[in-house]
Amino acid sequence: MVQSNLVERFDTVVSVMTETEARECVVKINGHMNSARALLLDLYERQGWVALGYASWRECAVAEFEQTQTHLYRQLAAAEIERRISPIGEIGAIPETHLRPMAKLTPMEQPIAWQEANERSNGKPTARVVNQVVDEMLSPEDDALDPPSDPIEIPLPMAVHYSSNTPEWYTPRHVIERVLHLFGAIDLDPCSNAKGELANVPAGEHFTIFDDGLDQRWHGRVYMNPPYGDEIGQWTARLLQAYADDEIDEAIALLPARTDTAWFRPLMKHRCCFVHGRLKFSESKDSAPFPSVIVYLGPDRENFVEYFSDIGTIMQKYES
Predict the structure, then answer these.
(1) What is the reported pTM?
(2) Domains of the chain, each with CATH number or no CATH
(3) What is the per-residue pLDDT for 14?
(4) Cβ atoms 220, 204 nearer than 8 A
(5) Which residues does residue 221 pair with via DSSP β-bridges, in sequence order?
(6) Alpha carbon 188 to chain centroid distance?
(7) Which of 86, 89, 182, 252 is most open to solvent, judged by the fewest CB atoms within 10 Å of its CB?
């Protein structure tokens, strides 16, 4: 018996789609949905709902669109994520199913997740791969954070555990080891917890809170893990100025990856290692409640990549 390639639809007869036609149809449908996503974000950000006479975006969404509010807000979130991860800020090229899992990540982590998914899939990631990458990044147990196999022996003080409501987070040992591999020696720690053998970071000179390191003369190879409170912007500005004025030779800073802050943006022109997972500070049993970034200021960029790429994704927004 020969199977017919026709199908009845109500009172008409239409031909069954070929595989090619079906694929073209799916592409067109996705293209339409994705372009609508870009328009939705434009209407939201430019307050088109005000021009239409609505008191809020929610009121506009309910009255003007047939889709559920959940669907609209999901599309809106997808548009924001896609613009964030796209090198040119394009919206409408990535399926919403691929973008949805990344809503679990911070804005800083989303581009990293998308880059990793692309690398694993030769530039054609599936929703499954994206989900897998996101799950790995959210996992507190991350093998990438293990110390190197041949660590440098460093005398460190007994660990002091800090809760998330303190501005002080002492550098994990394996990060210090990588800094020493790159620098050979640290000349200055301007944000030290103590001096001499009691200091968490082995350096030629330590400035503590009693020295007011912001007002001191800096020099040589600097490692900085500043207080994470409101004063952090003063420390990053001091570091950038010291490097721009040739007051220091090179520097590494361990910072919370707060990419949405004004103090963080100037750092992006330098090499940044966005750490996979969450660091465990001061050998604490619990991971930090925020993502971390390691920023390098200096000429030895290739070796920075060599020593730090195994614990995070290296990025640089601008050439410095």
Answers:
(1) 0.50
(2) 6-103 (no CATH), 143-315 (3.40.50)
(3) 59
(4) yes
(5) 250
(6) 28
(7) 89
